[in-house]
Amino acid sequence: MPEPAPPKREKQSPTDVSFLRPTALGFIRMRGKTDNGRRWYQEIEPELAYILVREGAAVVVNRHTIRRLYSNKEFRQLILTRDNYTCRFCGKYGDTIDHELPRAKGGHTTPVNCVCACYECNQLKANRDVDEFMGMLD
Ligand SMILES: [Zn+2]
User: Are residues 106 and 132 in the same domain?
Assistant: First the structure.
């Protein structure tokens, strides 16, 4: 039996933020799942939505909505296995997540901004950004 022809429809790229349009109230909707598989939903600033999509933490679902790709637990797993449980700063075993640009300074929890760190480096680095911290190690 021949395959039915795929429906002809313009489809936006899931990573194309230019497709996003804020709602009448000026927000983008974001949805996702908790570690327990419960669905959640929140409204966020468009600027944040663009960053989350560009940095690989979310995809565009439709013009008002993005979907967070990972629960907290999944995100942690993703970063630690990507970095082979190796601290980005000292090269030893690590199993904590560090925000290269700290959240306190506007960094976000995305694959681009997060790396594996050992407990000691993570504590020591605290709210410093990478350049500051690497300077301290020299
Ligand atoms: Zn370390």
Answer: yes
Q: How far out from the chain centre does Cα 49 lie?
A: 10
Asked whether residue 8 is domain-assigned, the answer is no
Query: Considering the entire predicted model, what is its pTM?
Result: 0.84
Chain centre to alpha carbon of residue 10 = 27
Helix (H) or strand (E) holding 98: strand 96-99
Residue 16: predicted pLDDT? 87
Residue 35 corresponds to which amino acid?
D
Each residue's pLDDT tens digit, 101-129:
999 999 999 999 999 999 999 999 888 88
- Does some domain include residue 97? yes
Q: Tell me the residue range of the domain where 101 lies.
A: 72-137
Distance 41 CA to ligand 1 centre (A): 35
The pLDDT tens digits for 31-59 are 999 999 999 999 999 999 999 999 999 99
Contacts of 58 (CB under 8 A, 6+ apart): 30, 32, 49, 52, 66, 67, 68, 69
Distance 57 CA to ligand 1 centre (A): 24
Distance 86 CA to ligand 1 centre (A): 8
Q: Are residues 86 and 50 in the same domain?
A: no
